[in-house]
């Protein structure tokens, strides 16, 4: 029987082909989306940046592949865990009995005792600052002096009671108390990292100095500003003779020296520059050597961004949550050991990244103790200082 029904896809005269209509709708939707995206990009580019970046040509980063003290090695790779009770032990110090103390980002300060053979025992909560304790060091009266990011300069007595020593200077807030060291006469030197009040990629992009070096006098209970205009003021350490104090400028890969005695008293200069990463905390050993924790190796994009204020300003428009990954630490553990004159003696590394995000390196009783910050490895580690 002949088929008299036409099931072909032909459109009726004057009508639209179904497939053609679908393609047109898809095309219209695509063009609309593209217009929205282009409009968003144009609007984003036209919106003023929240910062006015300063151009900076950063020095070429040292190479880990070339012979010299920065040459890649695995000296940190053998580090063993001491305690994992604090997840982010920013700084490490010891009391007269040899017990280890460290803080965590949740406000707790832990004490770790050791047995007669030097083996670490279970960590105990010593105090809670209700803030974020970073720098720690005992004074001669047995009080633990604490640089707390959120609360300022604190004193914690042996029973764990917390007292605020300073949270203002010259009638203005101390914005981000970070690290400290204590002189023999009890004077406390500490850093106020930034007027931003917290770590922000926007400040790195701006490339302007907002940090300060401060001094607290325990007799007068007065706080004074010694040095301003620091690029993310961080670690603090006094020299053996206490004729100068060092402060790390993380965002310019350098350590600045402020003279406390001698003909240069009251002036500052660069102690060590062009480090292979962002310097964090500084400690001094019995030989007068300075140990510098390098939180992350250099970030090539950041150095390139500093060359272009337009790029830096554009990046600062993005939400901070999207930028946090850009400044996350590289999985390359790094510590620098410097002479009393600022010369790099050697570097200690873990290029495989089992230990990274290093903030602190403390030489104590034949071991190098390592602290870290959020984004890096967790817990306190140590390794023998045999070479």
UniProtKB/TrEMBL annotation:
The UniProt keywords, alphabetically, are: Glycoprotein, Membrane, Phosphoprotein, Transmembrane, Transmembrane helix
Q: Does the keyword Coiled coil apply?
A: no
Q: Does the keyword tRNA-binding apply?
A: no
The transmembrane residues are 29-47
MF terms (GO), sorted A to Z: hydrolase activity
PANTHER family assigned to the protein according to its UniProt record, in alphabetical order: ADIPOCYTE PLASMA MEMBRANE-ASSOCIATED PROTEIN HEMOMUCIN-RELATED, STRICTOSIDINE SYNTHASE-RELATED
Record's protein name:
Gluconolactonase
- To which species is this protein native? Paenibacillus durus
């Amino acid at each position: 029987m002949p088929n008299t029904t036409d099931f072909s896809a032909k459109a009726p005269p004057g009508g639209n082909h179904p497939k053609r209509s679908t393609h047109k709708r898809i095309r219209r939707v695509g063009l609309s989306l593209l217009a929205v995206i282009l409009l968003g990009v144009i609007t984003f580019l036209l919106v003023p940046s929240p910062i006015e970046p300063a151009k900076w040509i950063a020095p070429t980063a040292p190479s880990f592949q070339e012979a010299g003290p920065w040459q890649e090695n695995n000296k940190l790779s053998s580090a063993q865990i001491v305690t994992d009770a604090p997840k982010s032990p920013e700084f490490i110090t010891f009391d007269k009995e040899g017990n280890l103390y460290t803080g965590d980002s949740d406000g707790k300060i832990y004490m770790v005792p050791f047995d007669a053979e030097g083996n670490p025992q279970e960590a105990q909560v010593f105090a809670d600052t209700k803030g974020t304790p970073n720098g720690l060091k005992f004074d001669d009266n047995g009080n633990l002096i604490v640089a707390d990011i959120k609360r300022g300069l604190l004193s914690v007595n042996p029973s764990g009671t917390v007292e605020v020593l300073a949270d203002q200077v010259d009638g203005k807030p101390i914005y981000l108390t970070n690290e400290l060291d204590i002189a023999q006469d009890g004077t406390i030197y500490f850093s106020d990292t930034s007027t931003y009040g917290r770590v922000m990629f926007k400040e790195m992009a701006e490339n302007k100095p907002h940090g300060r070096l401060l001094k607290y006098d325990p007799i007068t209970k007065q706080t004074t500003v010694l040095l301003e205009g620091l690029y993310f003021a961080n670690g603090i350490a006094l020299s053996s003779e206490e004729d100068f104090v060092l402060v790390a400028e993380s965002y310019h890969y350098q350590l600045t020296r402020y003279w406390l005695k001698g003909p240069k008293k009251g002036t500052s200069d660069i102690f060590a520059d062009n480090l292979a990463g962002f310097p964090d905390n500084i400690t001094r050993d019995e030989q007068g050597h300075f140990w510098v924790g390098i939180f992350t190796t250099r970030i090539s994009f950041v150095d390139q961004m500093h060359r272009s204020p337009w790029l830096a300003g554009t990046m600062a428009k993005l939400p901070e949550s999207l930028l946090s990954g850009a400044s996350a630490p590289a999985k390359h553990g790094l510590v620098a050991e410097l002479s009393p004159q600022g010369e790099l003696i050697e570097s200690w590394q873990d290029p495989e990244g089992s230990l990274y995000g290093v903030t602190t390196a403390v030489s104590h009783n034949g071991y190098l103790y390592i602290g870290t910050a959020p984004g890096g490895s967790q817990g306190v580690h140590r390794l023998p200082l045999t070479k």
